[in-house]
Amino acid sequence: MKKDSLKGWFKSGAPGVWMSGGAVAMAVIMTVGLLAVIAVRGLGHFWPADLVQATYKVPGQAQQTVIGEVVQQEEVPRARLKGAGLPVPDQGPEFMTRELIKVGNRDLNGSDFTWVVGEWLVDEKRPSELMALERREWGNFYGYLVSVKEEGRVVAQGPAAWGELQARLQRANTLNRQLQALEKKDIGAINHGLERLRLQARKLELEGKLDAAAQADMDADRAELNSRYKAVEERLTGLHQAFARDSLVARDGNGREVEINLSKVVHAIQPNAMSGFTKLGTYFGKVWEFLSDDPREANTEGGIFPAIFGTVMMTLIMAVIVTPFGVLAAVYLREYARQGPVTRLIRIAVNNLAGVPAIVYGVFGLGFFVYVLGGSIDRLFFPEALPAPTLGTPGLLWASLTLALLAVPVVIVATEEGLARIPRTVREGSLALGATKAETLWKIVLPMASPAMMTGMILAVARAAGEVAPLMLVGVVKLAPSLPVDGNYPYLHLDQKIMHLGFHIYDVGFQSPNVEAARPLVYATALLLVLVIASLNLSAVWIRNHLREKYKALDS
Fold first, then answer.
1. pTM across the whole model
2. pLDDT at residue number 9
3. What's the CA gap between 112 and 132, in Å, rounded?
């Protein structure tokens, strides 16, 4: 009886349902777990951790004071520490504690991180006066505030120095923002205008039209730009002098004092004296800076806004390019092409293109788009700029086109499947009512197939936004000097190189000279890349669902 019931249970298909449900549950758990690990390790980097001060007593060596953040703790065999050259005694427990401490003060210590033996740390404490300085150069500084100076003269010291430091640091950050605005916007616009005048003069010279009147007009424009530059330069000089006015004197744990100009300091906090709500506010402030600022210190400090902007911009341009080409190709193959061996061969080729390694597309993009197409455009339309390339060099346009070429098979296949699902009776009914084939296609078939087109675009965005290998050849760089969108004509600079979140992860994770400092940023950037791709996909899913509801009546 049990055998028959078990056989009936298998015949009912229940085992397949349970296996499918278990596989889906396992996939969801693994995905959520992976995202949770990335989020904890990445977002935890921005929490203002307490600073520990301890005396480090290595047997047979002079003791020293260690100040910093405890980043990692692990148990290691005693023999391993002894093999590393540490003076570990032969007798004792089999395992000892090893701690990774972020000690900062790279200008004094030579390294941001150091491994210490936990059993040799004594007199651990957390003084509220300990200070953490986030600097624009040389990483963090950990120690005590001694005094605040103005033009070399001490204006505050002791307990009153901390309030004075915060007020003057706020002033310094305001001046820094004004300096950045002048250098990026005002001076950038002036340099752009001077370069356009130079290219205009060269173009007129090549065409033989550089007469006295044209030269006089350009000289007048150049004089006006130079006058603007002198005015901006005077403002810059004044801001730089005011920016470098204040400084502080800090002392590390071993009594060494160093004077730091406030122009080099981003933030100054005393984490041991901060309440939970204050730490929470500081945490969200640092997360926002990570999302909105430019990178510093070989991309291991600061923010990643240029990489976010470059990723989104390139993906949107790719979607604008790939969607019409993919849809037109699918419409031709499904609606107009004769269904024969040639059409089947084309479909096989399209399906095979989806499996070509991405780096092959990058090599093709570099050879064809950059050197052949871009070089030809430079010779035809930008001869005045030669030999300096305009479009004959990797940039945003060629990166977007390369990704579009990589993603177009996905759009073609998805659109064809959508067109194939539209009932033949719908087409015949439209034609019977007097509509032409083109009108039927444009007003009936394509609107009904639009959800499938959006599905193809979603898949294209999901594949293209995370690609790194081809972009390294056709337009993505470690650090871009400016965004491809600004207030200078033509406003969108398709010839400029960009930053990308995927390449940023590769660069910080594998090319950074400061591995320990870069590790949490790899997790944070990876989480952000996932969120950016998810946001783009969710936007496309919402549009697809809206179109599906709109044309549901026609489908039924």
1. 0.89
2. 67
3. 13
